[in-house]
Write the C-alpha cells for this entry.
Amino acid sequence: MKLVIAFLVLFSLLAVSSASEKFDFFYLVQQWPGSFCDTRQGCCFPDDTKPAAAFGIHGLWPNYAKCRGRQGLVRAMLGDDAFLSTVGRRGKCWPEYCDDGNELSPWEIRDLVASLDRSWPTLSCKNRRSFQFWSYEWKKHGTCSNLEPHDYFARALALKAKHDLAEILADAGIVPSDTETYPVSSVRDAIAQGTGFVANLECNRDADGEAQLFQVYQCVDRDAKDLIDCPLAMPTKCTDRVKLPVF
C-alpha cells in the first residue's frame, strides 16, 4: 500500500509539473548527415530522395541546467533503492512526453512542410517518413516546450536558418573530407565565432572506428528565439581530432 501511495504522489507531481514546464533552456540539435550515414548501420533517405549536404535538425529539446531530484516525501515513502530505480540516480534531466495524447496534425504545420523536408529530414531506416519523425519529436519534446506545434517547428527552422553551420565551418577551413581530420577545438571555436555562442559537440564512430563530428547542440533561450551560451557541458565522445565525412 505504501508503494502504491508513493507512486500516486510521484505521478501527481509529474502531472502538475507538465502543465507548464519549468525547464531552463532548449537544445537545438543538428546532425551532420555524412556522420549519421557513415556508420555500420548506415542510413536511408526519406522518400528515396537524398537530403542536401547540410546539417539537419534532429530536434528542439527542453532541458534542465541541472538534473532535478524528486520530492523528499516520495523518496521517504519508496526508500532509496525503489526511488533510484523509479526516477533514476541523476534525477530528471529533461522533461519529456508532457502530453502524450497531443498528436501532431499535418494541418497545423502545412505551410512548413517544404522547409521541414529540407531542414529536418529523417535518415533512419526504421522509419523513412519524415512526418513520423516530426511527430515523434513533437510528442517527446515539443509537448514540453510550452509552445504550440506551429511555433515549435517554425522557431527551430528560424534558428537553423540564422546560422548555417556547414558554411560557418567551411569559412574556418573545415570542409567535408573522407581523409582529413580536424582538431575538435577548432570546430568548437569556429562555431562560437560564427554564431557568437558556445555550443556542445557530440561525436560518433565511423565504420572503421574513427571519431567524426555527429551533432551540434546549440543552446537556446526558453522562448526558443535566441541562442545562448550553453549553461553546462555534456559528454562528447570526441577525440582530439575528428572527421567530417563527405555526404
Remarks:
- The longest helix spans residues 2-19.
